[in-house]
Specification:
Layout lengths: L6 E4 L5 H12 L3 E6 L3 H13 L4 E5 L5 H15 L4 E4 L14 H29 L3 E6 L14 H19 L4 E8 L8 H4 L5 H7 L9 H11 L10 E4 L7
Parallel strand pairs: 1-2, 1-4, 2-3, 4-5, 5-6, 6-7
Helix pairs in contact: 1-2, 1-8, 3-4, 4-5
Bound molecules: NADPH dihydro-nicotinamide-adenine-dinucleotide phosphate (NDP).
Length: 251
């Protein structure tokens, strides 16, 4: 098992990709804190999936865009599950708004959750790791949109390219403490965030035709890559970003 005995905090793990990461992490031997912001019931479902795999789990509510809530969540996880070894910064939101209609408020909310949220969680967790003299790993979840234009995502795409830069910069500053930081960019994954695509038979074939493997990814396929980055098998990898997209960005 790649993550035996580790404690992981996974943001946005009540559903979708975060839940897939939680399942794989539990199978690899990690105890998991399941962060969510509003869906307590779904978070408890993920907690149950982790426990079914023989690992400890708690649900941990916090809006990642709030420094105070992130601090309280990290303290609670640290006290209840033990020192955090791995942070997966996965929580995110996507809205689709044409550039000419995008409001300042929409810009702020989306960038606060997607980009500031990853900064806040990484800083709060890393400060505690450093203070405790513990090594660790941070895995940031970005998006294929760090490299690809999709319409109506003027606010979303920069957060994801920003996560790539955040990953590089934070990795350089945390290397001396034995904390590695890497990024996974998902392509098209079948989750609540993308459910609307399945209702658009006019769009789906065009999207799948651009993906070399010809299908959407499943959340566990991000989980296995995140587990690798979080594990000692990736001990010489930091500041790196990888596209897990079935061959979309490169086609
Ligand atoms: P979902 O919409 O299915 O799930 C989003 C998760 O994030 C939920 O657990 C939700 O919690 C949580 N969340 C949302 N806002 C906050 C917040 N402010 N604070 C804490 N948690 C929050 O999304 P996906 O699983 O599809 O996406 C996960 C990540 O992957 C995101 O960063 C997304 O941008 C990225 N991604 C997804 C792709 C895809 O094809 N699905 C493609 C590329 C990137 P709750 O249930 O409580 O609302």
């Amino acid at each position: 098992m790649k993550l035996a005995g580790k404690v992981a905090l996974i943001t946005g793990a009540s559903r979708g990709i975060g839940r897939g990461i939680a399942e794989v992490f539990a199978e690899e031997g990690a105890d998991v804190a399941v962060n969510y912001v509003q869906n307590a019931e779904k978070a408890e479902e993920t907690v149950a999936l982790v426990r079914e795999r023989g690992r400890r789990a708690i649900a941990a509510k916090a809006d990642v865009a709030s420094g105070a809530e992130v601090e309280a969540m990290v303290d609670r996880v640290w006290n209840e599950l033990g020192p955090i070894d791995v942070l997966v910064n996965n929580a995110g939101i996507e809205t689709i708004v044409p550039f000419l209609e995008l409001t300042e408020e929409q810009w702020h909310r989306l960038t606060d959750v997607n980009l500031k949220g990853e900064f806040l969680c990484a800083q709060v967790v890393a400060r505690k790791m450093v203070a405790a003299g513990r090594k660790g790993a941070i895995v940031n979840i970005g998006s294929i949109q760090a490299a690809k234009v999709l319409p109506g995502r003027t606010h979303y795409a920069p957060t994801k390219l920003g996560i790539e830069a955040l990953t590089r910069n934070v990795s350089a500053e945390l290397a001396e403490y034995g904390i590695r930081v890497n990024c996974v960019h998902p392509g098209y994954f079948d989750t609540d965030m993308t459910a609307w695509i399945l209702k658009r038979p006019d769009l789906l074939p065009g999207i799948l035709a651009q993906i070399s493997l010809g299908r959407a990814g499943v959340p566990r396929e991000i989980g296995t890559v995140a587990a690798f980055f979080a594990s000692d098998e990736a001990s010489y990898i930091t500041g790196q970003s990888i596209f897990v997209d079935g061959g979309w960005v490169g086609k």
